[in-house]
Amino acid sequence: MTGLVAAASAVVLVLGACGGDDGDETPAPGGGTTAAASEIKVGLAYDIGGRGDKSFNDSAAEGLDKASDEFGVEATELEAAEGETDAQKEERLRQLADAGNNPIIAVGFAYATALAAVAPEYPDVSFAIIDDATLVDEPNVASLTFAEEQGSFLVGAIAAQASKTNNIGFVGGVETPLIHKFQAGYEAGAKAVKPDIQIQVTYLTQPPDFTGFNDPAKGQTAAAGMYDSGADVVYHAAGGSGGGVFTAAKAGGKLAIGVDADQYLGAAPDVQPVILTSMLKEVDVAVYDMIKSSVDGKPLTGAKVYDLEAGGVGFSTSNSIVAPFTATAEDYEKKIISGEIVVPTEVGG
Q: Which residues contact 50 (CB under 8 A, 6 or more apart)?
């Protein structure tokens, strides 16, 4: 057993109902044939935190579970370890490929360097990467990205409406160009509602330290500092660290905004009341689409962007306290889709 396997979380086999006898071939849409779905093996390489983070990785897992149930594919899941190198990520991807998984989905931009090295070694394997568009020229890689800035604009507009102190906050897990998109959209949405609103910003770690996506204690400390400095709504784009933001909001009697999944639904009952809304990033849809394309015999390649128009981002309404603010957000949504509003992707843009 390699050190990588020992460091990874348990490999999980997900088996759904088989769609036909082994060895059968079924027509692929548009012509051609593909192996029975029950013969397809899917490899999923999680980012730090893995299944159970109640955010980014769990959204990917939801898409995998749906595809497993619907198509009967077999899946192998491996989790990243904190502080690992690109070489270790490469080993994880090769392990999945050598085990016969096809497609293989890398969950998170942190896999970009590793996948750039591994994809050419396995030209007959279809790969996908979430949140990275640097590999669009690789013939066997699908780059599945999101318009995070658009969804963040909407929750920024909600935060500004909900704020009674004219002071809100943003907690980023790791300061990268991707998380800057969340911040840029959030700030633009808030200022569209209240041009003079104060926005506090904190990043938990700097690259190459990616533990900021899985450190609830740091998230709690950062958010508590913002609340103490006058903020009454804090939005996090920090993965598993967001749990700490919710804890701080509850302790301070303030509000928080989740990310990626509808975090109200997965939160403990005592924390749910402080989760005003969540910026929905439908990673589950991207994962499902990649698997379905392989089942159909036409694996995705190139770039695919999940934006507001495609239903790839949005905001949740599970907590009824958000109701007074949704009409304004929905109006902005229409203007973004029509092109009347172009949301910046860079801070200060």
A: 9, 57, 77, 79, 80
Instruction: Round to whole Å and give the CA distance between 229 and 240.
Output: 24
Cα 344 from Cα 346, distance rounded (Å): 6
Looking at the fold, whether 293 and 228 belong to one and the same domain comes out as no
In angstroms, the CA 311 to CA 200 distance is 29
Residue pair 106/78 in contact by the 8 Å Cβ criterion: no
To the question of pTM greater than 0.70 for the whole model, the response is: yes
CATH number, residue 106: 3.40.50.2300
Q: Are 63 and 128 in contact (CB under 8 A)?
A: no
Terminal CA-CA length for the chain: 49
DSSP-derived pairing of the beta strands 104-106 and 33-35: unpaired
> Contact, 277 vs 263, CB < 8 A?
no
Residue-wise pLDDT tens digits, 262-305: 999 999 999 999 999 999 999 999 999 999 999 999 999 999 99
DSSP bridge partners of 80: 48
- Tracing tokens 């896999």 back to the chain, one arrives at 111
- Residue 193 sits at φ, ψ, to 5 deg, of -85, -45
